[in-house]
Design a protein that fits this description.
- The chain has 14 helices and 14 strands.
- The protein has 384 residues and is of the alpha+beta class.
- The chain has 2 domains: 6-111 and 344-355, Phosphorylase Kinase, domain 1 (2-Layer Sandwich), CATH 3.30.200; 113-331, Transferase(Phosphotransferase), domain 1, CATH 1.10.510.10.
- The strands form 5 sheets. Strands 3-4-5-7-6 form a 5-stranded antiparallel sheet. Strands 8-10-11 form a 3-stranded antiparallel sheet.
- β10 and β11 (165-167) form a beta hairpin.
- Its EC number is 2.7.11.24.
- One of its GO terms (biological process) is rhythmic process.
Length: 384
Amino acid sequence: MNKNKRDREFYSVDVGDSTFTVLKRYQNLRPIGSGAQGIVCSAYDQILERNVAIKKLSRPFQNQTHAKRAYRELVLMKCVNHKNIIGLLNVFTPQKSLEDFQDVYLVMELMDANLCQVIQMELDHERLSYLLYQMLCGIKHLHGAGIIHRDLKPSNIVVKSDCTLKILDFGLARTAATGLLMTPYVVTRYYRAPEVILGMGYQANVDVWSVGCIVAEMIRGSVLFPGTDHIDQWNKVIEQLGTPSQDFLMKLNHSVRTYVENRPRYAGYSFEKLFPDVLFPADSDHNKLKASQARDLLSKMLVIDASKRISVEEALHHPYINVWYDPAEVEAPPPKIPDRTLDEREHTVEEWKELIYKEVIEWEERTKNGVIRGQPTALAQVQQ
């Protein structure tokens, strides 16, 4: 495409503190949020005739960590296709060449709210268990491809007014094959599993703990373990759930175990005490959903020792969840990740930049007249 024609396709607009340079098909840009990975605004897509969300990755090439994260998010979003995971509709850059390349824009489905807003609402058992079911379906789909999300929290789970739910933000997700210890600073602190806080190895059900914390917050209306740092976070966990067994402590490395063993010992509280009936909605006659079932599931998710914690698969069969069980949703074929070595790879910023540029250009070549070939027609439906 010649330079002048490409210039004519784009326009710039200030959104909050940032300037977005976007394709002219996207109009009415309005800021809707910002995070470590970028700024997000809503827009109207004149070609798909629907509202969309546009995320501008923030300074993706300022260092290797940012560049790798941007590449990971783009690659994972391109290959995931599940109703409970946010769909990627378009990727573009306004720059004309690799030399000038500095901005990446991801266009996604627009939802109505994130779970932070939903937590403040009074939910009945149907809605609560349906939201939980959808979270678990999305996570199971990611785990099927060896992707552990690692950063599940209310702000990156989005919903629509009809109670449909999608997971977003894969910048921190990593494929499970690495076996590397996570840094304590990766996952947003309140939802961080004990094995992460204590620097242990972790497995897929690290995401189950995060879901348990989110559901507990939806029931309580406040954060379950509001730690000020990761030491305080651990104290909040054991004050409520009790000091774990000696078996568990023996799995810790020596210096961590010494610290943990020197903490006061806590008996913890029963789940009936932590989540009394009064916090729950009335029992549901329709689906026979009860507070006791929700509490039982929470008691299996919020288990300090990951080897004793319920798996995603087991949680999906729990009585509080399985009223919604649909094999087409639960057992959808897992995404095929083209690059299984994604997490071990190390490159210079310039090399990451070239890889990302190739992904963006390849996407642009796959699209024709602004509509992606092979996209399910549902994605082209107008969102109100």
